[in-house]
TrEMBL record:
UniProt keyword Transport, yes or no: yes
UniProt GO MF annotations: transmembrane transporter activity
Source organism phylogeny: Bacteria, Pseudomonadati, Pseudomonadota, Gammaproteobacteria, Pseudomonadales
Cellular component terms (Gene Ontology): plasma membrane
Membrane spanning residue stretches: 12-34, 54-74, 81-101, 107-131, 143-162, 168-185, 205-223, 229-249, 270-292, 304-325, 332-352, 364-389, 401-420, 440-459
Protein name: DHA2 family efflux MFS transporter permease subunit
C-alpha cells in the first residue's frame, strides 16, 4: 500500500473509495433491481407472494452469511484477491440469472449473488477504515454509504424500464458492465499482498452449516405458514428446528477456538444495542423497498417503470443525506442522530399504513423519501459507534457483525411483509374479491412499530469516547 500511496499521494484514499464504491454499488444494485420485476416473474413462473419473496430474502439471508465469511476470506487470501475473485463469481451468477429456465435456478443465483455481496460490503468498509485517518472516518463512511445507496436507488428505476421495454431477465444482465469496471479499478488501485504469508485461519464449517441451517429453517417456516397453516406439523417442526439449531450454533460458537461469529464481542457494553438497531434498520430499509413497488404495481395498477421512478426521489434523498450525516457523526453524539432517524422512518411508515386508492403517488414518494432520510441518520452513526466500542484487532469482526445484523434484519423484514401480503391475498380470495390495500397497510404499520421499538436499544447504544467494559 505504501507504493500506491507514494504514487498517488493524498488522492490515493479517494481512488480506493471509488474502487470499493463501484464494486459495492454494483452488488447493491442487484439487491433492489429485481423488486420491480417480481410481478413479471410471478407470471412467468406461477408462484405466490411468499414464494417470489425468496428472490429478495435468499439474497439478503445469504448476504448475511457472506458477511461473516468475509473475515476468513480476508485472513486467508487478502483483501485484493477476495475482492477480485468475488467480482468474477458475481458476474458468472448474473449471466446465469439472465438465462434461468425455472424459478429454482433464480433462487440459486440469488443465493450466490448474496454470498458474494456479503463478502464485499464489510471488506469495503475495512479498506476505507485503513486508508482514512481517524478524524475523517465518519466523513468517509458517509460518502461511501451515499455511493452504496445510489445502486439501490438506480436499481428500481433501471429495472422498471428494462422490464417494460424488454424482460425481467435484463435485471440480471445489466450489472455485467459495472462488474467489469469494478474489476479494472481493483486491479489498478488495490494494493497487492505484501511478502508476509497469508493467515491460515481455519474456517468454521460446522458453524457455517449450523448458521445456514437455523436461518433456512426459520425463514422457510415463516414463509410456509400462510400456505400450509400455522398449526401444520411441517411449519411447527421447522420453527422448532430453527430454535434448536440456533441454540446449538450459539453453544458451538462459544466453545470454538476459531468461531465464525465472535460472540465475545457482545460483552463490550453497547455493542448489543448497536447490533439490534442495525437489525431493525435493515428490516425497515429492505421491507419498504420490497413493499413499495408491489403496492404501486399490484394494488394501484401502475407500470414497473412508474414503480421504479417512484423510488428514485427516496433513494436520492437518502444518498444526499449521507455526506451530511457522516460529517455530523464526527461532531455530535450518534444517539441524537439515531433517535431522529428512527422517529422519521416510523412517521413515514405510519402515513403509508393509511394508503388507499385515493392516495396520490406524490404523497407516497414524499413519505418514502422522508423514511430514507431517517434511515440515513441511523446507518453511519451505528457503524462508527460499533467500531469505536471494540479493540483494534476486532474491528473486522465488528463491521461484519453489524452488516450481518442489517442484512438478517432485512430478510426478516421482507419475509414478514410478504406474510402479511399473502395472508391478505388468501383472505380476499376466500371471499371472492380482489386483493387490495389492507395487507400493505398492515405491513407498513409493522415497520413503524419495529422502528419505535428500536428507540429502546438506541438509548443503550454506546457513544464514541465512553469507556468499554
Amino acid at each position: 500500500m505504501q507504493q500506491l500511496q507514494a504514487r498517488y499521494g493524498k488522492r490515493y484514499k479517494w481512488w480506493v473509495m471509488l474502487t470499493v464504491m463501484t464494486g459495492t454499488m454494483t452488488m447493491s444494485l442487484s439487491s433492489t433491481i429485481v423488486n420491480v420485476a417480481l410481478p413479471d416473474v410471478m407470471e412467468t413462473f406461477p408462484v405466490s407472494h411468499t414464494m417470489v419473496q425468496w428472490m429478495v430474502t435468499a439474497f439478503l439471508a445469504s448476504m448475511a452469511i457472506g458477511m461473516l465469511l468475509n473475515v476468513w476470506m480476508v485472513d486467508r487470501f487478502g483483501p485484493r484477491v477476495t475482492y477480485m475473485g468475488a467480482l468474477l463469481v458475481f458476474m458468472a451468477a448474473a449471466l446465469a440469472g439472465g438465462l434461468a429456465v425455472n424459478f429454482s435456478m433464480l433462487i440459486f443465483v440469488r443465493v450466490v449473488q448474496g454470498l458474494i455481496a456479503g463478502m464485499v460490503q464489510p471488506l469495503a468498509m475495512l479498506m476505507l477504515y485503513a486508508v482514512f485517518p481517524a478524524n475523517q472516518r465518519g466523513q468517509a463512511m458517509g460518502l461511501y454509504a451515499m455511493g452504496v445507496v445510489l445502486g439501490p436507488t438506480a436499481g428500481p428505476v433501471a429495472g422498471g424500464v428494462l422490464v417494460d421495454w424488454w424482460s425481467w431477465r435484463a435485471v440480471f444482465l445489466v450489472v455485467l458492465p459495472f462488474c467489469l469496471a469494478a474489476f479494472y479499478l481493483g486491479r489498478t488501485f488495490l494494493s497487492r499482498p505484501d511478502s508476509a504469508p497469508p493467515v491460515h485461519r481455519r474456517l468454521d464449517i460446522p458453524g457455517l452449516l449450523l448458521l445456514g441451517g437455523w436461518m433456512l429453517a426459520l425463514l422457510w417456516g415463516l414463509s410456509e405458514g400462510p400456505l400450509s397453516g400455522w398449526n401444520s406439523s411441517a411449519v411447527i417442526a421447522a420453527l422448532i428446528a430453527a430454535l434448536v439449531l440456533f441454540l446449538i450454533f450459539t453453544r458451538h460458537q462459544l466453545r470454538s477456538l476459531a468461531p465464525l461469529l465472535a460472540l465475545r464481542i457482545f460483552s463490550y457494553k453497547g455493542f448489543t444495542a448497536a447490533f439490534t438497531v442495525a437489525m431493525l434498520t435493515g428490516a425497515g430499509l429492505y421491507g419498504s423497498v420490497y413493499l413499495l413497488p408491489m403496492l404501486v404495481q399490484t394494488a394501484m395498477g401502475e407500470s414497473a417503470s412508474a414503480a421504479g421512478m417512484l423510488l428514485m426521489p427516496a433513494g436520492l434523498a437518502m444518498a444526499l443525506s449521507f455526506p451530511v450525516i457522516g460529517q455530523l457523526t464526527d461532531r455530535i453524539l450518534p444517539k441524537i442522530l439515531v433517535t431522529g432517524g428512527l422517529v422519521l422512518f416510523a412517521l413515514s411508515s405510519i402515513v403509508l399504513s393509511e394508503a388507499s386508492a385515493d392516495t396520490s403517488l406524490m404523497l407516497i414518494a414524499l413519505m418514502a423519501a422522508l423514511g430514507r432520510v431517517g434511515l440515513a441518520m441511523t446507518m453511519p452513526p451505528v457503524v462508527i459507534g460499533a467500531m469505536s466500542i471494540v479493540p483494534q484487532d476486532m474491528i473486522n469482526q465488528a463491521t461484519g457483525l453489524i452488516s450481518f445484523a442489517r442484512q438478517f434484519g432485512g430478510s426478516l423484514g421482507v419475509m414478514l411483509s410478504a406474510i402479511l401480503l399473502q395472508e391478505n391475498t388468501l383472505w380476499t380470495t376466500s371471499l371472492g374479491i380482489l386483493p387490495g390495500f389492507p395487507g400493505y397497510q398492515d405491513a407498513f404499520a409493522l415497520l413503524a412499530l419495529l422502528y419505535l421499538i428500536g428507540l429502546y436499544p438506541m438509548a443503550r447504544m454506546k457513544s464514541p469516547g465512553q469507556t468499554a467494559t
